[in-house]
């Protein structure tokens, strides 16, 4: 580190490693920045000093007479009123042919005095430096501001990356600087500064090529190969080098070339358009090949490219190449290119993307809506100002400006409407509050009748109508019933028209009637319900906001109402089933056992993942402690006893987990799962078990719910044998056919009196067996006598009925 003292001011020069650590510029980046700053100052001074004249002239005879053939818009010549056909008498008090810019490029620029012959009158003009005008703002001040902003953004991004950037990011920053620098150079090149003409020939056509280079590098980093893009990039850089060399020969050597300079510039412009086309093709191919998650990014890229390049290519370059006209100002079209670097830098730094699909849909909608107003506005302007219109000869610019203004106005109208509508438009606020209030209260509604009353009260309170009636009509009869009402019911004529409209109508829609409104609220197999709303008390029609609110409210109400009706039907069916045969419905048993198994599965998972793992960890820590330390024999004995206890706890938890969730039941099948269960029971039970599976098919046709339920039944029977039957031997026979699966259980226990069985189900676990069999639509038969053991015969269908399979699909899904 070196310290310098200059005029009592001390400066500290940091070593390059420390500069890198601070994220500052290295030498090569610093030299590049200094070069950009020097060029920026030079070109901005040229643009500000010399007034943009905007005259193109041609030599028409041998008497050194030059005639104006073209005048640029927003130039000094157009502001002073010079006209096509005016003759140039002298430039800077010298003959016109002595002016280098005029004789070489057929342009009049960088002058201080100009004499013009208009008819028989010669007028001399004095042109001052640093004149503030539209051209000065667009060609000098705005490019300077944009370049400074681009430099600041690039430096901030560079510092954020700590000076270490990947190649694609570096090329993107170069692209941003190239766009800004080209815009600055354009102002000086319009004044035909030699250095500016040379640099603009290289920087301007490079803009789409450098952007394509960035896309190629970014795709390569992500594993994509764009071979054709690579070839075009190499070819493009070679073409740009050739154009730059030709321009250097024209500008500095004065050599005669076989191609006129104007054609060289036209070729450069044509290559720029071709590069734009190649860029769009590559971007569109990437968009087409992208996944749905990546597609918004490529949509933003394509949209940004169209916004950035279409104004210049579509409204300036192509019209100039084809028809020698420019539809809009080149300065304004060039400014749109700045949208590209800003968009790309935003994509690299943003955490969430803009919803471009929504914006494009809105843009298409606004574009269609703005067509007719724009045509009408342009027609009126041209009609009212036929002779002295300032837009005379600029109808294309007028169309573009008004059409764009209409689209912008529609967009602003939508944004302002969302913010101000609730406060400025009567009724909009109450409508929204009503929807919020209704949706908050609807969650507490438990009965259809309560919803009917609340809906009618809400409609009457907001709309202030005379009557709101909910009618229930029968489809096959003339019967009509008022379910809920406010005010007087409809007359016979209105009711007849409502019935006729309902024949052609559909549920959830308004029916056409003359008096009031009629909405098809709900329907079932035999009845349908119509909501009739009488006219408003103030005799005004229902406006669009009221109809939109009413439709939204009724849609919410209909949805909740139908669900409440389904719940009522469900409860009624359950009550009828229970009252009919005093048995729980099969589907309800299925549901209850399914909930029970889900809880068992969750508890097994919690035990395995929490308690079991903690016990294993404690056991390992205790084993490690005893191996790393010298312990006395008594301490070793205590540690060994604790380890054995932990192992017993671990085994018990594992066994509990297996009982809660039978392992490999779905993989092994019901037969092997029961065989594995019996093997474990034999280890701890004081009775013997004989299993017979000779009559079982190789592939038992049971679904997962059936297999698990039968497994639980066998578990329960084995548990009862050890706890209540006091048996010493059990015979278990499993058999199956295409239609049924059978389980026969028999033990030699104490038996029981079957007349006492009904009141002891809940205490002996047999109720669980009976209900589980009923949930499978099977049959169970108990046989027993005191002192003669206990027998159970179970038969379940091998394939469940259709509604049971549908229930299983819903509960497992």
Question: What do you see in this structure?
Answer:
Helix 2 runs antiparallel to helix 5. This protein folds into 4 domains: 76 residues, Roll (Pdz3 Domain), CATH 2.30.42; 221 residues, Rhopdopsin 7-helix transmembrane proteins; 150 residues, Beta-Lactamase (2-Layer Sandwich); 150 residues, Histidine kinase-like ATPase, C-terminal domain (Heat Shock Protein 90), CATH 3.30.565. The strands form 4 sheets. It has a 6-stranded antiparallel beta sheet with strand order 6-3-4-5-7-8. The radius of gyration is 45 Å and the shape is elongated. The chain is of the alpha+beta class and 813 residues long. The protein is built from 27 helices and 18 strands.
List its traits.
813 residues, Rhopdopsin 7-helix transmembrane proteins, Beta-Lactamase, six-stranded antiparallel β-sheet, five-stranded antiparallel β-sheet, disordered N terminus, disordered C terminus
* Corresponding CATH architecture of the largest domain: Up-down Bundle
Could you tell me the strand content as a percent range?
5-15%
Strand order of the largest sheet: 6-3-4-5-7-8
The CATH topology name of the largest domain reads: Rhopdopsin 7-helix transmembrane proteins
Largest sheet: 6 strands, antiparallel
Task: State the domain count.
Answer: 4
Name the structural class: alpha+beta
């Amino acid at each position: 580190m070196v310290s310098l003292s200059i005029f009592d001011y001390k400066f500290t020069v940091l070593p390059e490693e420390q500069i890198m650590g601070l994220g500052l510029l290295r030498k090569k980046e610093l030299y590049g920045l200094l070069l950009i700053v020097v060029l920026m100052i030079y070109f901005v001074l040229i643009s500000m000093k010399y007034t943009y004249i905007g005259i193109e002239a041609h030599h028409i005879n041998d008497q050194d007479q030059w005639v104006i053939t073209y005048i640029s818009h927003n130039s000094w010549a157009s502001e002073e009123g010079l006209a096509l056909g005016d003759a140039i008498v002298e430039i800077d008090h010298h003959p016109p042919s002595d002016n280098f810019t005029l004789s070489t490029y057929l342009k009049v620029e960088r002058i201080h005095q100009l004499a013009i012959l208009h008819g028989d009158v010669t007028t001399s003009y004095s042109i001052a430096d640093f004149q503030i005008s539209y051209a000065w703002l667009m060609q000098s001040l705005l490019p300077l501001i944009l370049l400074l902003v681009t430099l600041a953004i690039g430096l901030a991004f560079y510092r954020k990356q700590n000076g270490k950037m990947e190649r694609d990011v570096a090329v993107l920053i170069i692209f941003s600087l190239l766009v800004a620098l080209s815009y600055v150079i354009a102002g000086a090149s319009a004044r035909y500064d030699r250095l500016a003409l040379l640099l603009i020939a290289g920087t301007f056509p490079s803009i789409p090529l450098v952007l394509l280079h960035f896309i190629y590098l970014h795709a390569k980093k992500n594993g994509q190969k764009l071979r054709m893009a690579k070839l075009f990039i190499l070819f493009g850089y070679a073409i740009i080098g050739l154009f730059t060399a030709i321009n250097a020969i024209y500008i500095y050597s004065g050599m005669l070339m076989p191609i006129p300079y104007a054609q060289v510039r036209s070729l450069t412009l044509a290559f720029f358009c071709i590069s734009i086309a190649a860029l769009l093709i590559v971007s569109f191919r990437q968009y087409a090949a992208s996944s749905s998650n990546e597609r918004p990014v490529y949509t933003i890229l394509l949209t940004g490219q169209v916004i950035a390049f279409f104004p210049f290519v579509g409204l300036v370059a192509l019209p100039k190449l084809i028809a020698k006209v420019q539809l809009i100002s080149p300065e304004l079209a060039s400014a749109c290119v700045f949208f590209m670097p800003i968009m790309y830098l935003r994509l690299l730094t943003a955490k969430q993307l803009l919803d471009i699909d929504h914006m494009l849909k809105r843009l298409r909608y606004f574009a269609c809506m703005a067509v007719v107003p724009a045509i009408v506005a342009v027609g009126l302007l041209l009609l009212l100002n036929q002779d002295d219109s300032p837009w005379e000869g600029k109808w294309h610019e007028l169309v573009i400006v008004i059409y764009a203004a209409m689209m912008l106005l529609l967009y602003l109208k939508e944004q302002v409407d969302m913010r101000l509508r609730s406060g400025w438009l009567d009724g909009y606020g109450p409508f929204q509050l009503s929807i919020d209030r209704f949706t908050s209260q609807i969650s507490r509604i438990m009965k259809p009748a309560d919803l009917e009353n609340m809906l009618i009260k809400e409609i009457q309170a907001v709309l202030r109508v005379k009557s709101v009636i909910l009618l229930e009509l029968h489809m096959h009869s003339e019967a009509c019933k008022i379910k809920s009402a406010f005010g007087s019911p409809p007359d016979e004529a209105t009711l007849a028209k409502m019935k006729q409209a309902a024949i052609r109508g559909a549920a959830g829609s308004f029916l056409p009637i003359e008096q009031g409104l009629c909405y098809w609220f709900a329907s079932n197999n035999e009845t349908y319900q119509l909501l009739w709303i009488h006219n408003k008390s103030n005799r005004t029609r229902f406006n669009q906001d009221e109809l939109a609110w009413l439709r939204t409210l009724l849609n919410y109400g209909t949805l909740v109402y139908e669900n409440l009706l389904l719940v009522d039907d469900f409860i009624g069916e359950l009550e009828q089933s229970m009252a009919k045969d005093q048995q729980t419905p099969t589907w309800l048993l299925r549901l209850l056992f399914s909930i029970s198994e889900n809880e068992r599965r969750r508890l097994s998972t919690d035990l395995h993942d929490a308690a079991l793992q903690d016990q294993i960890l404690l056991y390992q820590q205790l084993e490690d402690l005893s191996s790393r330390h010298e312990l006395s024999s008594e301490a070793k004995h205590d540690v060994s006893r604790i380890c054995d206890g932990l192992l017993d706890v671990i085994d018990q938890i594992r066994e509990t987990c297996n009982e809660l969730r039978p392992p490999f039941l779905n993989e092994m099948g019901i037969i092997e799962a029961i065989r594995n269960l019996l093997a474990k029971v034999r280890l701890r039970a004081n009775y013997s078990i004989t299993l017979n599976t000779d009559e079982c098919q190789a592939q038992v046709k049971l679904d997962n719910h059936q297999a698990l339920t039968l497994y639980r039944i066998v578990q329960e029977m084995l548990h009862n044998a050890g706890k209540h039957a006091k048996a010493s031997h059990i015979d278990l026979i499993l058999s199956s056919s295409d239609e049924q699966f059978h389980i026969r259980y028999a033990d030699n226990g104490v038996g029981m009196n079957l007349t006492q069985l009904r009141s002891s189900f809940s205490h002996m676990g047999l109720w669980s067996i009976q209900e589980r069999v009923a949930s499978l639509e099977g049959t169970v038969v108990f046989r027993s006598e005191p002192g003669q053991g206990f027998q159970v015969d179970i038969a379940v269908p091998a394939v469940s009925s259709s509604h049971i399979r549908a229930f299983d699909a819903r509960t497992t899904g």
